[in-house]
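Annex B. Sample input.
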Amino acid sequence: MKVGIVGLPNVGKSTLFNCLSQNKAQSENYPFCTIDPNVSIVNVPDLRLDKLSSLINPKKLISTTVKIVDIAGLVKGASKGEGLGNKFLSNIRETDAIIHVLRCFDDPNIVHVNGNINPLSDKEVVEYELVFKDIEIIEKRLDRIKKTLRSGSNESKKEIEILEKVLHQLQKMNVSRVDFSDDQFEEFIKPLELISFKPILYVCNVGENDVVRGNSYVEDVRREIENKDSEIIIISAKIESEINELDSLEEKKIFLNDLGLEESGSNKLIRASYRLLNLHSYFTAGEEEVRGWTIKIGDSAYDAAGQIHSDFQKGFICAEVISYKDYIEYGSEIKVKEAGKIRLEGKDYVVSDGDIIHFRFNI
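Annex B, continued. Sample output.
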C-alpha cells in the first residue's frame, strides 16, 4: 500500500518527504525540482510497540510500515501535458491514497508558481487536473465498450451504465464512492485506477508561529472540506526540517516542548496516512521478536494469519488472542493466561486494533 504526496510546485512536498524518509529528496526553491518520484518505506510510530518491547525485552523490534511517494509538482494544464503533467498523473494513479500539501504560509523568499498565496485556488488547480484526467480515461473506456455493444454484445450494458454515472459525477466535480455498491466498484471502477476516488489527506503547511493553532489560510481549507470525507492536519515543513537535524530524541522532545507540540508533524502525518489507507495493526510478541503487522480494518484472523505466512492460513487451527489493554495490565503472557484473559478465536474473528495474536496451525 502506498501514499502519494501531491501539490503545486514549491509548496513543501519534498521538504516533508525528507523529514519522513532517510532517502533525501531534492528540495530547492524552484518549480519542478522533483521530476522522478522519490519513494521511501517509513515506520508507523506506535507507542504500543515500544511499551510491549519494554515489558518483553525482545531481540528484535519491528514496526509496521507505509510507502510514501513524493511526486513531481503539478501545474494548470497538466491533464493536457503541461509541465510534467502526464508523468505526474501516471505516477499518482499508481498510489492507493493521496496526501495533498497546500501552502498556507507567507514567505516572499519562496517562489509561488502562481504568484500569490491562495491554498483554495491551489487546491482547485490540482483537483481540476485530476478530474480532467479521470474524465479522459472514462470517455476512452466508454468509447471502446460502446463499439463492442454495437457489434451485438449485451455484456457491457451494465458497465456502460456505471461508467456514465461516474462520468456525470466527474463533470459535476462531485464524486461519491457511496453511490456505488462494493461489487460495482470492484468490478468496473477500481480497475481504472481513477484518481478522484482515492482518499485524500490535506496537509496545511504553515509557518512556525502558526503550527499550533493554524491561521486564516487553514480555516479557509477547513471550511472548504468540512462536508467531505477527508482529513486535514497542520504541519510546518520548516520546523520538521529543523527537528530532522537534531541528533538525539531528548533534543527533539525539548525542541517540540518549546513550541508547544506533543509530537512531530512527521509522526502525525505517517499515522494519518496509515488511517487514510483504512489500515490498522495487530502484534506478535515473544522473546525473539515483537512485531507490528498491517491489515485492513475489518480483516479476519484468517486474513491476519496470511500476512505472516501462507502456511498459517492453509493450516489454520485457531488464534490465541490477547487484547493490548490486558497485556499491559497484567504485564506478561503468563500472567494474562493465569487471569483467564487469553481467548481462542476462529477464522472469522474480526481482528481488533492492537490485538496480540499467536496462531496455531498444522500443515
